[in-house]
Amino acid sequence: MSFIFPEWRQRLARSLHVSRSKPESKYIQIATHAPVLGVQNRTVVFRGFVEDSHVLQCITEKDSDKYRALQYAQESEICWYFPKTREQYRLSVHTQLVGSTDNEAGLRQQMWQNLSVASKQSFIDNQKLDLAQSCGPRHTEVGTDSPTEEVCPHEQVPENFILILCSVYAVDYLILSEPHQRFKSFCEMNEWVEESAKP
């Protein structure tokens, strides 16, 4: 049985297609709340949906406030605005943080392979900095004959690389052009229901 795309996914696909020439169309805002950190909102990059699902993918580092906040509270909201079409999507999501030992580690590995070299390098450089600060300088023994295996650092997924899976369970869609329109969608018993709402 083929995967069914509800109305909101079809709209979002159109919004992304129309705005495909605009790099900022992949920027989304995700809001979190946690003790000490309080309410925070930051911009992250949308990195596609998990195949045959309504699960968005983003990435972060293990030592970030974003990671700490989502560890505390998995519920979050994503706001996505497309200036070209004047559309706004507010997505209610349940988040999951995926590290090297989690069940979805395969998705994390796949995401790492799809990143640009520049994106990978930022994670590698930050991890090296963390190791240097926590362990101090490393000394190698002179005169050892032990062979060293050279591995391209870009092929190894750093421990600080975290995949964020955002499972969408409700959508508030607003068209800001005239006339304003608004539609709310939510998942009920694995079925998506949509209703018109006041803008």
UniProtKB/TrEMBL annotation:
- Which InterPro entries does this entry report, sorted A to Z? Pyridox_Oxase_Alr4036_FMN-bd, Split_barrel_FMN-bd
> Any idea where the Pyridoxamine 5'-phosphate oxidase Alr4036 family FMN-binding domain is?
6-96
Q: Which GO terms describe its molecular function?
A: FMN binding
In Swiss-Prot or TrEMBL terms, this protein is called Pyridoxamine 5'-phosphate oxidase Alr4036 family FMN-binding domain-containing protein
Task: State the organism of origin.
Answer: Opacimonas viscosa
What lineage does UniProt assign to this protein's organism?
A: Bacteria, Pseudomonadati, Pseudomonadota, Gammaproteobacteria, Alteromonadales
